[in-house]
Amino acid sequence: MGAAQSFRELCDRTKNTNVRLSLPAVCIVWQTAMIILFGVFIRYNEESDTHWVEYRKENNLSDIQNDFYFRYPSFQDVHVMIFVGFGFLMTFLQRYSFGAVGFNFLIAAFGLQWALLMQGWFHSLDYTDGKIKIGVENLINADFCVAGCLIAYGAVLGKVSPVQLLVLTLFGITLFAVEEYIILDLIHAKDAGGSMVIHTFGGYYGLSISWMLYRPNLDQSNRLQSSVYHSDVFAMIGTLFLWMFWPSFNSAITDHGDGQHRAAINTYLALASTVLTTVAVSSLFQKHGKLDMVHIQNSTLAGGVAVGTAAEFMLMPYGSLIVGFCCGIISTLGYIFLTPFMEKYLKIQDTCGIHNLHAMPGVIGGIVGAITAAAATESVYGAEGLRNTFDFEGEFADRSTSKQGGHQAAGLCVAICFGVGGGILVGFILRLPIWGDPADDNCFNDEPYWENFPNIYLSWKLNSLQV
C-alpha cells in the first residue's frame, strides 16, 4: 500500500506542459529510427518494383491487372477518412480544434510508418532475403492500424500531451499488429471491415487508458468540455466524410469481385438505416423532441462499424438494414445513459464517447459476424463461394461453417483482451509524471501546446460580439 500511495502521489504532482525538449526529441529520434528500419527492412513488392515488367511478361499479365488499379481508389477513400474524417470529427470541443486535427495528423503520420514495419514483419516478410515487400494493400492496412490508435485518442481527447499520444501510438500499433495476426492468421477469423480487429480493440484500448488516467478533478475544466455552434459544424464535416467513405473502408481489402461488391452494398445500407433510428431516438429522449448534435455526429456512423465483420458475408440487404437499425438505437442510448454512468461509477472519462461509436458496435459486429458465419450454407453461398468467402483452403480446407462461427467469436474475445490488457499497461506508463500532460483545470484547451492560440480565440470572440 505504501508503494502504491507513493506512486500515486508521484503521478499527481504539479503538471508542467512544457514539451519544448521532450516533443522534438521523441519526434526526431523516432523518425530517425524509422529511416534506419526502413532502410534495413522495407522494399517494394513485385507489383511496385521496376521488375514488374518482367514479372508481368512471365505471368502473362497486363498493366491494368496491377493491384494498384484495383486498390488505389479505396486507399484514397480510407486515407481521407483517417486524416480528414477522424480529425474533424474530434473538433467539437470549443477550444480544442488545433489539438483535434493537429494531433490526429501527428498520430497518423508516425503510426502508418510503424504499422508498415509491424504488420510487415507478420504478413509481408520475404524469408528468402529477410525484407518486407510493400505495395498499395500494405498502405491500406497501415491506415487501418492507425485507425485503432485514433479511436483510442478519442477517449483521452484534450487530456493528454502530444508526447503521450506518440507513446500511445507506439504501443497501440504494436499491440494491434500482434492481435491482428492472432485473429486473422492463427484463428483464421474473417474481419474485412475490422469490427473486431480495429473498432473493438481500439475502443477498449482507449477506454482502459482513460480509466488508468482518471482525473477526479476534471470538473474544473467543465467550462471547456462543451461545443459551440461553429465547432459542431466542423465536427459534422468529419462525420459526413466518414459516412460517405465507410463503404470503401469495409471493402478495401476484401477479395476482388463479389466480396468487395457485397461489402460496399452491405455497409451502404447499414449506414443509411442507422441515420433514421439515431434521429428517432435522439428526438424521443430530448426535451421538446429536439435533436442532439452529439448523436447525429457519432451514432449515425455506428452501423458502418457493426457491419464490418460480416460485410463480405451473405448478410442480405435486409440484414444490413436490421444491423444499422439496431446500432442506431443502441449507440444513441449509450450516449444518453451509458457515458454518464461510466464516468460516475466506473471512473472512465470518455471524451468522444468511443464506447458508443466503436467499442459496443464493434462487439455487435463481431457477434453478427459469428452468427452469420455459423449460419452459412452451401445452398446460399455455393460450394465454391463458401470456400472463397471464408478461405477454406490449405490447413483450413476441412473447417465447417459452424466451427468458423466459433472461431469468429474467439477472435472477438482476443480483440477485447488485447484492448483491455494493453490499455491498462500503457495507461500505467502514461501516468508517469514525465510526459507534460495538462492540469485538471486546463484540459480540453489548445493553449498549453499551440502558439498564438489565445490571440486567435480572443479575436474570434470579439468579432462575434461585434456582429
List keywords for this structure.
single chain, 467 residues, mainly alpha, Ammonium transporter fold
Describe this protein's structure:
The structure is a single chain. The chain has 467 residues and is an all-alpha fold. It has one domain: Ammonium transporter AmtB like domains (Ammonium transporter fold). The protein is 68% helix and 2% strand. The chain contains 18 helices and three strands. The protein has helices at 2-11, 22-41, 52-58, 67-89, 97-124, 136-156, 162-186, 195-212, 229-251, 258-284, 293-298, 302-306, 317-345, 354-374, 378-381, 383-390, 401-430, 453-466; strands at residues 42-44, 125-126, 131-134. Strands 1-3-2 form a three-stranded mixed β-sheet. Strand 2 (125-126) and strand 3 form a beta hairpin. Helix 4 (67-89) runs antiparallel to helix 5, helix 4 (67-89) packs parallel to helix 6 (136-156) and helix 5 (97-124) runs parallel beside helix 7 (162-186). The longest helix has 30 residues, at 401-430. The chain starts with a helix and ends with a helix. The mean pLDDT is 93. Its main location: membrane. The chain crosses the membrane at residues 21-42, 96-117, 138-157, 163-184, 196-214, 234-253, 265-285, 318-338, 409-430. It is found in: Cell membrane. Functions as an ammonia transporter. May play a role in the elimination of ammonia in the gill.
